[in-house]
């Protein structure tokens, strides 16, 4: 099933270039509305909750809770054929932003509400969004 | 409740047409579109020269524009056109748009079609869309709709304490209907055991939870309910119609990072308007055709539209409280992105379903879409 097809990589635009630049430094930078304090991940020129355009960028702690997940057993994109099975998680970060991430440590069983850590992981030349179950100290 | 739209009850679907459905058509999308549109016009008892409006939709440029179909069929003029860059949210919405155009006097007879080589050509699961929020899905391997909607299905199962046998209720029911439908792509018998034995595609989805990609086209004709014509079937009146995008519907059709509740989709947001404008009540329905790219979207629609209480949609399907997706649905008939879902509703109400026929069906609910936005119709025999 392996093929020469290259994996899709981020194609940052003027809105989300800074997000990917921060990820390359190991940081998850989320947008935060200066009016209603809503936080979200994919940068947009307006707040999805209130629409105003005064938006801050803050560093997220990466801590969050598992909302849902899917185990990909069959690659739809052939460039992922060697990865299956793999898991995509949806994590609600403590700042309030919901994020989709690749599960980077599959050694623990998943349940809704499980505490997670979201952190960039290196894939080729890109730092992408990864997540693992948080091991509480 | 806002004022009831004027086009309701005054417009109708008057004809239905299909091309052949196959896994490898060997034909152009334009040829498939032309076949379905020609068939729908003839079915409506109209001439090509009667058609003065065309509406269609495509996803990632997988189809042909309305003007190409007009040219191919020799339509003498168009007074109304709509090319929507939409997926499965579109069919009911475009029928309503066509009806509005007719009611407003912009056009007399509008064809609505969907055409694609969905299996042999551009496969929806294999396309790499760009822009929107795709940077946040594709590189990590969240590449295709079965995976995205599986995220919703799992959360639904968690919150409603339902399991794989509940998801299975949808394909089990629809496969039985498909056995009677000569157009269906997937007809082999399915049992709960054989379902549970299938490997996962995108856990919790197995193969039978997923639509069957197909090459083909489907079209309907929308006209005034009292239009003069001699069609094969009775006019099927557009009795209620609604589109909804819930709050923060995302930057593209698969972007659900901003959506708050994966257990409730657009159907929860349009139900009040759809039923508020409808004299046909939920409990009066004779059948429903609910968009089913994946099994779970049927469950969310049943609950979103109030056909069953929360967490009971699978029981609703299992017990056959209402015939749902009587052609086998998109799961079995094939993925014409829900245009065939509308067509099945019309054929049921005209008493000429290709397979299972609901006795004396007079009203049918139809939905289009599975995620943040979508549309719905209540159709009725006049």
Structure description:
The complex is a heterodimer of chains A (137) and B (382). In chain A, 36% of the residues are buried. The radius of gyration of chain A is 16 Å and the shape is globular. In chain A, strand 1 and strand 2 form a beta hairpin. The N and C termini of chain A lie far apart (42 Å). Chain A contains 1 helix and 8 strands. Chain A has a 5-stranded mixed barrel with strand order 4-5-6-8-7. A 3-stranded antiparallel β-sheet of chain A has the order 2-1-3. Helices cover 5% and strands 39% of the residues of chain A. Chain B has 382 residues and is of the alpha/beta class. Chain B has one domain: Thiolase/Chalcone synthase (Peroxisomal Thiolase, Chain A, domain 1). Helices cover 31% and strands 19% of the residues of chain B. Chain B is built from 11 helices and 11 strands. In chain B, the strands form 2 sheets. Chain B has a 9-stranded mixed β-sheet, sandwiched between helices. In chain B, strands 5-6 form a two-stranded antiparallel ribbon. In chain B, helix 1 (29-43) crosses helix 2 (66-73), helix 5 (164-178) crosses helix 8 (295-304) and helix 7 (266-276) crosses helix 8. The model of chain B has no long low-confidence stretch (mean pLDDT 97). The chains are: A mainly beta (137), B alpha/beta (382). Chain A binds chain B through residues 7-13, 16, 20, 40-42, 44, 48-49, 67-77, 80, 83, 85-86, 88, 90, 98-102, 112, 123, 126, 128-130, and chain B through 125-126, 128, 130-131, 133-144, 146-147, 150-152, 154-155, 158, 199-204, 248, 251, 255, 257-259, 262. Strand 4 of chain A pairs antiparallel with strand 5 (200-203) of chain B.
Helices and strands in order:
The complex is a heterodimer of chains A (137) and B (382).
Chain A: H1 17-23, E1 29-33, E2 39-40, E3 55-59, E4 63-72, E5 86-93, E6 98-103, E7 115-123, E8 126-133
Parallel strand pairs in A: 6-8
Antiparallel strand pairs in A: 1-2, 1-3, 4-5, 4-7, 5-6, 7-8
Chain B: E1 11-18, H1 29-43, E2 53-58, H2 66-73, E3 80-85, H3 90-104, E4 109-117, H4 145-160, H5 164-178, H6 192-197, E5 200-203, E6 205-206, E7 215-224, E8 236-245, H7 266-276, E9 287-289, H8 295-304, H9 313-318, H10 329-332, H11 339-349, E10 363-368, E11 373-381
Parallel strand pairs in B: 2-3, 2-4, 9-10
Antiparallel strand pairs in B: 1-7, 1-8, 4-7, 5-6, 8-11, 10-11
Helix pairs in contact in B: 1-2, 5-8, 7-8
């Amino acid at each position: 099933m392996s093929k020469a097809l290259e994996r899709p990589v981020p194609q940052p635009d003027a809105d989300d270039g800074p997000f990917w630049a921060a990820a390359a430094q190991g940081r998850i930078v989320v947008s935060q509305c200066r009016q209603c304090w809503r936080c979200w991940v994919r940068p947009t020129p307006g707040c999805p909750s209130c629409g105003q355009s005064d938006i801050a960028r803050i560093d997220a702690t990466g801590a969050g809770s598992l909302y849902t997940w899917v185990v990909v057993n069959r690659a739809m994109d052939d460039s992922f054929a060697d990865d299956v099975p793999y898991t995509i998680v949806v994590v609600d970060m403590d700042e309030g932003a919901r994020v989709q991430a690749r599960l980077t440590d599959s050694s623990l069983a998943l349940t809704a509400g499980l505490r997670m850590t979201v952190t960039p992981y290196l894939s080729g030349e890109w730092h992408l969004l990864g997540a693992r179950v948080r091991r509480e100290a | 409740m806002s004022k009831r739209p004027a086009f309701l009850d005054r417009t109708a679907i008057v004809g239905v047409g299909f091309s052949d459905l196959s896994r490898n058509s060997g034909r152009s999308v334009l040829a498939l579109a032309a076949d379905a549109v020609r068939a729908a016009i003839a079915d409506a008892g109209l001439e090509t020269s009667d058609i003065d409006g065309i509406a269609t939709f495509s996803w990632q440029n997988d189809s042909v524009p309305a003007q190409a179909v007009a040219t191919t069929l020799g339509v003498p003029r168009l007074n109304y056109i709509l090319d929507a860059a939409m997926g499965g949210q579109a069919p009911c919405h475009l029928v309503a748009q066509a009806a509005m155009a007719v009611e407003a006097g912009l056009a007399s007879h509008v064809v609505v079609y969907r055409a694609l080589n969905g299996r042999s050509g551009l496969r929806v699961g294999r396309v790499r869309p760009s822009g929107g929020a795709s940077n946040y899905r594709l590189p990590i391997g969240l590449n295709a709709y079965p995976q995205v909607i599986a995220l919703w299905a799992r959360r639904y199962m968690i919150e409603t304490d339902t399991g794989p046998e509940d998801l299975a209720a949808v394909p089990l029911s629809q496969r039985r209907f498909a056995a009677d439908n000569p157009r269906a792509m997937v007809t082999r018998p399915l049992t709960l055991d054989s379902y549970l034995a299938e490997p996962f595609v995108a856990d919790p989805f197995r193969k039978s939870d997923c639509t069957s990609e197909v090459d083909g086209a489907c079209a309907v004709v929308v006209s005034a309910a009292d239009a003069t014509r001699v069609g094969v079937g009775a006019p099927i009146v557009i009795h209620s119609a609604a589109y909804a995008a819930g709050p923060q519907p995302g930057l593209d059709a698969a972007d659900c990072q901003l959506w708050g509740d994966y257990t409730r989709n657009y159907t929860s947001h349009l139900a009040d308007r759809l039923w508020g404008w409808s004299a046909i009540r939920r409990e009066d329905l004779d059948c429903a055709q609910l968009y089913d790219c994946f099994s779970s979207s049927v469950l969310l629609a049943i609950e979103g539209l109030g056909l069953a209480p929360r967490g009971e949609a699978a029981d609703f399907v299992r017990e056959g409280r209402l015939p749902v997706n009587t052609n086998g649905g998109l799961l079995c008939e094939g993925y014409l992105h829900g245009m065939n879902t509308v067509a099945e509703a019309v054929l049921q109400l005209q008493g000429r379903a290709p397979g299972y026929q609901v006795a004396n069906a007079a009203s049918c609910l139809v939905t289009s879409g599975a995620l943040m936005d979508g549309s719905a119709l209540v159709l009725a025999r006049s």
